[in-house]
Structures are given as C-alpha cells and as structure tokens.
Amino acid sequence: MKRSWRRRWQAAKLRSSEIRDTKSYKLVAGYDTFEAFCRSEWDMKRRNAYYYIDAAQVIENVQHVAQIKPDNVRQTIPMQKLKTPEEQQKAWTRVLELAGPDQKVTAKLVKSVVDEFTAPEPPKEPEPPKDMTGLNNVKNFAQLCRKTEGTR
User: Long-range pairs for 93-100 at CB < 8 Å and ≥24 separation?
Assistant: First the structure.
C-alpha cells in the first residue's frame, strides 16, 4: 500500500496540475473529463487528485524554509487553508519547532498550528471616552429613568 501511495504521490506532483490546467487529459489521453482521467489512470477520485495537486503546491511553497518537508498528503491538507506561501512557510516553521528534535510531524500537529494561524483575532477592548460627554449622557439617562419610575 505504501508503494501505491508513493506512486500516486509522485504522479500527482509531477503531472496532475499540468494535465488539469492544459486539459491534456482530453487531447492526449482521450478522456472527456479530468475525473474520468483520474479514475482510469490513477484509480482515484477527482477530489483526491486535487488533494495531491494542492499538496504539491504546499511542498513547493515550504521547501525553502526547512530541509524537512511534508511527507504525506494528510500533513498538507490543513496547510491549504493558509492563503499565501509566506503564511504556509511560517506555519511549517512553527510545526517543525513544535515537533522537537525527533521531528515527529503529524497531521494533527499541522492542523493545530494552522488553527492558531487562522484563529480570529480577539475583539479589542473599547477605548474609554476622551471627554465626559458620554458619562453625562449616562447620568441624564439614569435620572430620566428614576423620574419615569416615580410616575408609574
């Protein structure tokens, strides 16, 4: 199974984006759709082929920041959420820092780092009023409330 995975990985990295983008699956291979091409040639669904295409792009983006690269598709899928190559490079660097000296990189670790990078920023605390106008309005509102309570 590992051999089959490696064969698919290499095939996808080297050819799939080019085949998809140039539509050579129609011209050269004679398939009507990219999906039919993937099923027949690689025995995989179109979605899986896209995972491999995207994985190859992630690897290309992070290969210059570290000697260790993602070594399977599952490690690259979370990285695909990051929009720019620079974000992917920063996230991969962080993954390797957290992996420690044994460099045990898992998909779970990659996902947790990507979640840190994609988490929304906490809302900022409201600034206090620069003048006392707001405070006066609160006092006036409180006085008005007291007056209306007495008329009930």
Answer: 93/65, 93/66, 96/66, 96/68
